[in-house]
Amino acid sequence: MKRKKITIVGFFLVPALSFVAFALASTGTHPLAPRSWSDSDRNCAPVGGTILTNFGAISSTTTLGPVTGDLRGAVAASVLGSPQPSGNNVIFHVQHHWVTDSGDTIFFDEATAKTLPLSQTRFAIVEYSSHIKGGTGKFAGATGDLNYLGAVDLSDGNVLRYLGKVCFASPDSH
């Protein structure tokens, strides 16, 4: 009986979700993308990719792993302090350390990740964004914002999707 209900729900839900995904793709809009890509003094570019990290590579509170996509390279993320319960959610304060394949470093403000606990060690990302505040190489003077979605597992690993924009200091630096 339960399988039949799941099948019926899936029969109606999958086409509806597919329609929404195709509609957003055709308009060039993504629900996580910043609303404005233009900045009169800067050259802004959309960015996206994936992050795969593991806790324990450096310490029990710092992840480390590869980044794919537009900002490909490696990232470490340190959880600052203890996770804070907030209603049904758990809040993590995170500091990112990002190095691209070309050796450029991207600097970030401290980020806040609002999560929904799925178990003692697993958390679904509800809201998680970070702000770029410069860097080295082509990221010197850059600004931007990244949004993340995915899951965090404090004992296994993290898989996240990032999407956002970077505004470079001058049009010829990108």
At the fold tier of CATH, the topology name of the largest domain is: AOC barrel-like
Output the number of helix runs.
1
pLDDT < 50 runs, ≥5 residues: 1-37
Tell me what portion of residues adopts beta-strand conformation: over 45%
Instruction: Give the topology string: H per helix, E per strand.
Output: HEEEEEEEEE
- Report the top-level CATH class of the largest domain: Mainly Beta
State the end-to-end CA separation: 56 Å
Radius of gyration: 18 Å
User: What general form does the structure show?
Assistant: globular
How many strands? 9
CATH architecture of the largest domain: Beta Barrel
Q: What would the average pLDDT be, to the nearest integer?
A: 81
* Helix/strand/pairing category: mainly beta
Reconstruct the topology from this structure:
Blueprint: H1 2-27, E1 43-59, E2 62-67, E3 73-86, E4 89-100, E5 105-108, E6 111-117, E7 122-135, E8 143-153, E9 158-168
Antiparallel strand pairs: 1-2, 1-9, 2-3, 3-4, 4-5, 4-6, 5-7, 6-7, 7-8, 8-9
